[in-house]
Amino acid sequence: MASVNSARLASVDALRGLAVAGMLLVNDPGDWDHVYAPLEHAAWNGWTPTDLIYPFFLFIVGVSLSLAMGAKLEAGQGAALRGTVLKRGLRILVLGLVLHALAWWLMDKTAFRVPGVLQRIGLCFALAGLVATRWRSPRAQWLWIVALLLGYGLLLKLGGPLDKAGNIASRIDARIFGPHGYEWDPATGLGHDPEGLVGTLGALATTLLGWRCGEALRHRALARLAAIGVGCALLGLGLDATGLMPINKNLWTPAFVLWTGGLGALALLLVHRLIDVRGWPAVGRSFGVNAIAAYAGAWMCTVFLEGFGWMGPVYAQGFGWLEPLVGPYGRSLAFAVVFVAVWWVIVKLLDERGIYIKV
């Protein structure tokens, strides 16, 4: 079967870039007390458009691994690639820890948070790469996905209630991280972290699903890609609708994996048709080719603004005039849009100069 000519597709870079831009948009409102409603995460069960951004990025991590490594694996280079994915995954994880250390130091946080977005990306990058290089057959890789979904689903169902306080994933994470998670109650010993270690089982399934969809794209099996998208999305919705398993981003439940992975596959198919086939502009590509650098740079920018006490004056003086016109929520949205626009200019300039910062 014919495969795509390049390991780098503009559509994949664009979709990755749009996900990064979405992360910056939802992570940087001017006022956390007045976040524009569509940019809010679901309180617990259910989903909003914002809840699609992070799983789309992890899905694209899997797609990108397939496009970069698939042909090399077919040439028998699997053993050599394992060290590469392990080292890069570790570098991404360490970068996440460094960014959290910077926030802890400059923003005078009470405790250093260990889990995080980049830490989970690093783990999923390394583990998905190891699975793909060790178990090369599609059947084995699908078995890995099924085993993760069934195993993690059973752990959640048999481990108690699926509310925020009682779910087993949060209980295990609280035992491991204690005050170094996102939320922690020293009186009860309970806590929760949306990027906790246990939920990474679901996130790994998302990344491996991205790998399989990347293989479909690489071999131009677009009908298979569409079938994966529709089938997974319907199965995820079905699990949620029947009450067997809720769609829940905080726990990264199997239903959430299937629903967001299915939508990710359909989004991948759509942007491939529009950009790679029909030649539409690859909007978001500049973010996509400097994805980790843009995320890390935006994080440091926010930490410096908050840590040195500049965020309040910038928001008040630069955006205060908007509140009588659009209200506090519109003002907060305007700050977030401008923040993304500034970083869009930065990554566009980097791209035009051929500067690509890799981790």
Automatic annotation (TrEMBL):
Any one Pfam family here would be HGSNAT_cat
Keywords noted in UniProt: Membrane, Transmembrane, Transmembrane helix
- Looking at the record, the residues that make up the Heparan-alpha-glucosaminide N-acetyltransferase catalytic domain are 8-156
- Membrane spanning residue stretches: 52-69, 89-106, 118-135, 142-160, 196-214, 221-239, 251-271, 292-312, 332-350
What InterPro entries would the database entry show? HGSNAT_cat
Q: What protein is this chain from?
A: Heparan-alpha-glucosaminide N-acetyltransferase domain-containing protein
Q: Which organism is it from?
A: Roseateles agri
